Model the fold of this input.
Amino acid sequence: MKESLSVRFLYGTVLGRFFLKILIDPRISKVFAKYMSSKYSKVIIPWFVKKNGINMDRFIIPKGGYKSFNDFFTRKLKVVPYIDDKAQLISPCDGYLTVKDIDDDSVFEIKHSRYDLRRLLKSKKLSKEFKGGTALIFRLTPCHYHRYDFCADGKIEAFRKIKGVLHCVRPIAVGKLNVFSQNSREYIVMKCDDNRKVIQMEVGAMLVGKIANSKNSEPSSVVKKGEEKGFFEYGGSTIIVLLNEKVKVNRDILAREKVGNEIPVMIGESLL
Done:
């Protein structure tokens, strides 16, 4: 994927990295988030829709329009996606999918960089448990629908929230920084009805002030695939699904024309 000039400037130049330090300051992020939730941010919406080629026919437009840019960004679909009851695992979101094996050393590559699973999860126990499994990485762009669902049926065993410096998740950024150890992230550990274990993680990006997960993400909750889990406010974002065993993704999905090395997927699609 070709990077924008602004991203190349921020991550690829000395002056850009100076400004980046300012941008990732939590205080700056809070001010930005407050503006995006204010009525003054509405002026951005028409430009954003045109720039990203968003088909608004898919989405609910409230009477009187959206109250703010974040109100627009977290818009809901008109039609709830069809969920196949027989599906073992579904796509939790719209986005671009990368499928990776978790190798014997619990290290896997995402966006051209190597990541230690233990550091990602901040759990030695879980990194051992998911060793030898499969990682599904979903990258959301600004044009995608930014609400996401639970990817499987099951019972939540644990929930964890990890604070971090908010950084861009684009490939050029990954080449410069250990992105996921810098990002804020939240994840659940879920035991599925077929006894498989799944981790579903949301990763925040630069200038994303909020990952808004529902109360159903709390331990002991019983959830259903296709049930809304939460949403991201403005910014590029990533969802990671980890399985504690190797799986084969649906052939029809793997056969799709790729965007770079990523596979376009829609929320609710059966992956297995």
Notes: The first strand starts at residue 95 and ends at 101.
